[in-house]
């Protein structure tokens, strides 16, 4: 019985994988993001922001790791199975704050 595994890369931007990087099964590298506006969700507005991912030399990503847009995994890092390395983009305003913002389309 064999092992079924996959590496999924959604690459609307650069995915930079350096030397001697190892991936466990079912790792996802996702470079596309979307807006955080609550009002745009209610209006079903969708769009993508291509933001690169960088994985430096000698890294190991365990099983089921998901790497999100804009993340750099530093040289020699080990990412534990099931982890989601991420970065904070911004605080999301309330729908009321969005409606009051005259610059919000």
Automatic annotation (TrEMBL):
By sequence similarity, the record places it as follows: Belongs to the transferase hexapeptide repeat family.
Report keywords, A-Z.
Answer: Transferase
Gene3D superfamilies according to UniProt = Hexapeptide repeat proteins
**Record-level Gene Ontology MF annotations:** O-acyltransferase activity
UniProt xrefs under Pfam families: Hexapep
Q: What is the lineage of its organism?
A: Eukaryota, Fungi, Dikarya, Basidiomycota, Agaricomycotina
Q: Report what the protein is called.
A: Mannose-1-phosphate guanylyltransferase
């Amino acid at each position: 019985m064999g092992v079924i595994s996959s590496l999924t890369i959604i690459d609307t931007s650069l995915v930079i994988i350096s030397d001697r990087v190892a991936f466990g099964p079912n790792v996802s590298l996702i470079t596309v993001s979307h807006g955080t506006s609550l009002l745009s969700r209610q209006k079903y507005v969708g769009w993508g922001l291509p933001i690169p991912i960088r994985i430096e030399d000698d890294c190991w990503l365990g099983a089921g790791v998901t790497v999100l847009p804009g993340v750099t995994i530093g040289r020699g890092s080990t990412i534990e199975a099931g982890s989601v390395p991420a970065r904070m983009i911004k605080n999301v305003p309330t729908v009321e704050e969005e409606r009051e913002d005259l610059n919000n389309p």
